[in-house]
Each structure stands twice: as structure tokens, then as C-alpha cells.
Amino acid sequence: MIDTAALPQNIVRLSQRTDGIALCFPPLRTPHVALVLGLFGLACLALPLFALSGLLATSQSNAHGLLMIALVGAFMAPLPVFGVVFVGLAVYLPANSLTVEVSPSGIRTVRRVFGLVCSRRELKCADIASLEAQIAARYQGLFSAEPYFRLVARHATLRKNDLVVAESLKGEALMTQMQALIARHAGLHIPGEKVPRQ
User: Fold this and answer.
1) What are the backbone dihedrals phi and psi of residue 117, each rounded to the nearest 5 degrees, phi first?
2) CB neighbour list of residue 160: distance below 8 Å, 6 or more residues apart
């Protein structure tokens, strides 16, 4: 029997199936990460506007003023691109969910964004070479005491067929527990390997 009370319900919800288990990584798993990314993205969008508006208001239409506008504009041009990317990530992170079904025959995943299915993937257990833990860089913060992990089922031959089977796992203890749980229900042998630091 699975002890679902030991798992953080805001990160993962586990249910027993007749042939295995189902894991649901719901939306709003890491709202603090999305908030930080969103604020940074908005700052990247706002800085060029403030800089150029200040220059336009104070500069005269002489060569010096036009040169300053061109130089500041060229320096600030990449910032809105970064801003759009970070705001997009801030919207995507709380809006996405991952459902993982694990059985001895294979692992199936469904990724949803705003409740709409955007990808379905499957990997047969016979094709899984390892269940690898990775530190998910996008969830790390300057003040985070524990790293966030994700688990990836590595395909035996094709790297492009690797499958994310768990994510947003805060701390090595939760990651190890999820790794053992998935491996047991998929019939995989997980040796005592060290977690790769990326």
C-alpha cells in the first residue's frame, strides 16, 4: 500500500491503478518561481521604455542627442526579447500539469497547459536504460536551501526519446522516494548511483 500522506499534495498526487500507479503533478506547483520570473521579465520590458522615454524627453534633435538614443537603443534592444521569454515562462510554469502513468509495460505521460493537452508520450519499460535524477535549473533560486529535481527515463538508444516522469521535486529525499516508487512499479532496477549535478 502507498503512503500518500507522506507526499506533498501541492507537488504530486498519487493514485493506485490496477496495473500500476498514476502520478499527477498539478498546476501551481511552484508559484514563487513563476512570480520571480514574471517580475524579472516585466523589469526587462520596462527598462528600455523608461530609458528611451527619458532620453527622448531631454535630448534635443541634434547629432549628439540622436547618437545617444541610437546607442542606448542598441544596448537595450535585447532586453524586451528576454522580457517576453521570462514572462512566457512565468505564465507557463503555473499553468502546466503533468500526468504520469507507470506500469510494468511502460510509462505514459500527458502534458497539459491551461487544461489543454499539448503532448502525449510513451516509453516501454524494456526501452528504459535508467531513471536519472537531474537538478532542474529553472526552479533554483538564490535563497533556496534545497535543490529541485526532475526524473528522466533515459531511452536505451535514442536520447530524443527520453521522457520526463517527475518534476518539481524539492529536496533529495523526495526525489529518492519518487525514483524508488516509479522504478518499483515499472519493474526497473535503480542502482545506488550518485545524482548528476548540472
Assistant:
1) -70, 125
2) none
Report d(CA 96, CA 112) in Å as an integer: 5
**CATH class as words, domain 7-27+97-186:** mainly beta
Rounded CA-CA distance 161/163 in Å is: 6
Q: What is this structure's pTM?
A: 0.76
Enumerate the β-bridge partners of residue 122: 108
Of the candidates 87, 179, 76, the residue with the CA atom closest to the CA atom of residue 131? 179
C-alpha cell at 125: 519499460
Distances 141 to 27, 36, 83, 107 between C-alpha atoms, Å: 20, 9, 18, 31
Cell of 20: 500500476
CB 89 within 8 A of CB 45: no
The domains of the chain are located at: 7-27+97-186, 35-91
Compute CA 169 distance to the chain's CA centroid, rounded to the nearest angstrom: 10
Residue 98: which residues within 8 A CB-CB, separation 6 or more? Answer: 23, 24, 25, 109, 110, 111, 112, 164, 167
Q: For residue range 3-26, what is the model confidence (pLDDT) as tens digits?
A: 555 778 888 999 988 889 999 999
91: which DSSP letter?
H
